[in-house]
């Protein structure tokens, strides 16, 4: 007489699951601690925990996945820098009219002066920066409405 499908001759149930992902489940049942190797996907362990309906382990693995995902979404802020050359008389207007997220970083006197009429004008390098925010498609910097309007006006000229 043969055993029914899914059982052996002693009546024990045979469950065909992935032993790689079952290891952390078995260790959790033995010790009450979740230990997942760093090269093992948490989603695979979650699948096993859900298959065996181990609610406390399901919650732990979901928390671990959420924690991992929140860490990967917190990427460091990137900056783009621009160096603008200007004369002394243009400096105040340039700094006061910066917009679209540009911030003044540093002012460097390049020491050269030129004669404009009878006046000497000092020249400066003005370093400005802007934060770039990451998107799933790479780093982007979305222009403001003011910048879009100015770009449209410039393209019509």
From TrEMBL:
<dbReference type="Pfam" id="PF02214">
    <property type="entry name" value="BTB_2"/>
</dbReference>
<dbReference type="GO" id="GO:0031463">
    <property type="term" value="C:Cul3-RING ubiquitin ligase complex"/>
</dbReference>
<dbReference type="InterPro" id="IPR003131">
    <property type="entry name" value="T1-type_BTB"/>
</dbReference>
<dbReference type="InterPro" id="IPR011333">
    <property type="entry name" value="SKP1/BTB/POZ_sf"/>
</dbReference>
<protein>
    <submittedName>
        <fullName>BTB/POZ domain-containing protein KCTD5</fullName>
    </submittedName>
</protein>
<dbReference type="GO" id="GO:0051260">
    <property type="term" value="P:protein homooligomerization"/>
</dbReference>
<feature type="domain" description="Potassium channel tetramerisation-type BTB">
    <location>
        <begin position="7"/>
        <end position="57"/>
    </location>
</feature>
<dbReference type="GO" id="GO:0005737">
    <property type="term" value="C:cytoplasm"/>
</dbReference>
<feature type="compositionally biased region" description="Basic and acidic residues">
    <location>
        <begin position="143"/>
        <end position="157"/>
    </location>
</feature>
<feature type="region of interest" description="Disordered">
    <location>
        <begin position="136"/>
        <end position="157"/>
    </location>
</feature>
<dbReference type="GO" id="GO:0043161">
    <property type="term" value="P:proteasome-mediated ubiquitin-dependent protein catabolic process"/>
</dbReference>
<dbReference type="GO" id="GO:0097602">
    <property type="term" value="F:cullin family protein binding"/>
</dbReference>
